[in-house]
TrEMBL record:
Highest taxon in the source lineage: Bacteria
Protein name (record): DUF3450 family protein
Signal peptide residues on this chain, from the entry's feature table: 1-19
Record organism: Pseudoalteromonas piratica
Keywords carried by this UniProt record: Coiled coil, Signal
Pfam families: DUF3450 (PF11932)
Residue stretches in coiled coil: 48-78
Length: 264
């Protein structure tokens, strides 16, 4: 009986020791869990703050990107507007260029068409300038400037009486010969020529086929009843032009040809 009691006591003691050991392990496990929980909480708090900071930065970046996109869209819209305006301006320039090209082409054709109708000195000048325009690569502005200078020269020629000393091939009893004469131009449509001795004389005028000279008897025939003293009148006109201080009224022998302007 005593032996059984000892065994029972020993068993109870072992159970108590085991119970104490289990409680200690459980306590340690609980402490470990609480420690891990604390660490996790601290880690989460730290991560939560970092995530909040990162989220705040992302929001700021988003706002900045939205503002940048809005600015970019506005800038792109402005660029598109300017590009459209430049395109329209370019199209207008091209249209104007085509208009100027067509106008210059027509003006050039007109110059070539009327050049043969001009008095010989002006005719030679226009032919030279027209050839220069054709053979030289010039911008439209330069071509227009040269054409305008030609028109201006013709207008100035038409506003005055000009005398021009030159050699002409003239008919005579011995055949055609070259003579020095004084050509007197009354504007663009009428002219005369007279040699210093009055032997050779004639009338020049613009006709439908171009500028024509009529010599001697043919010139008198054009004048008709006013042909008497023809050479004397021409010598008087020549003398007056050479000495304007001796100016006086002089009868001018005119023979203007009729021209169909629709054919010019």
């Amino acid at each position: 009986m005593k032996h059984f009691f000892v065994l029972a006591l020993t068993a109870l003691s072992s159970m108590f020791v085991y119970a104490q050991s289990s409680d200690a392990e459980l306590m340690q496990q609980w402490l470990d869990l609480e420690s891990q929980k604390g660490k996790l909480q601290l880690s989460w708090q730290a991560n939560e703050q970092a995530l909040k900071n990162q989220l705040s930065l992302l929001k700021q970046e988003k706002q900045a990107l939205n503002a940048l996109l809005k600015t970019a869209n506005a800038a792109r819209s402005e660029v598109d507007t300017k590009r459209l305006a430049l395109t329209e301006q370019q199209l207008a320039f091209e249209k104007n260029q085509q208009t100027v090209d067509a106008a210059l082409k027509n003006a050039h054709l007109f110059v070539k068409r009327i050049t043969p109708l001009l008095p010989p000195p002006l005719q030679n000048d226009w032919q030279t300038k027209t050839t220069q325009i054709e053979q030289t690569e010039l911008p439209n502005s330069e071509k227009l400037e040269r054409l305008l200078s030609m028109y201006k020269a013709a207008d100035e020629f038409n506003q005055r009486i000009a005398i021009h000393n030159t050699n002409m091939h003239l008919p005579s009893n011995e055949g055609d010969s070259e003579r020095l004469v004084n050509q007197i131009y009354l504007g663009l449509s009428q002219a005369w020529y007279i040699s210093d001795d009055g032997e050779f004389y004639g009338i020049g005028r613009v006709e439908q086929s171009g500028w024509q000279w009529h010599h001697g008897a043919a010139a008198k025939q054009l004048i008709g009843s006013n042909s008497e003293g023809f050479s004397t009148d021409l010598l008087a006109i020549k003398a007056m032009l050479e000495k304007p201080t001796n100016a006086s009224f002089i009868k001018a022998p005119l023979a203007i040809a009729s021209i169909d302007k629709e054919r010019l």
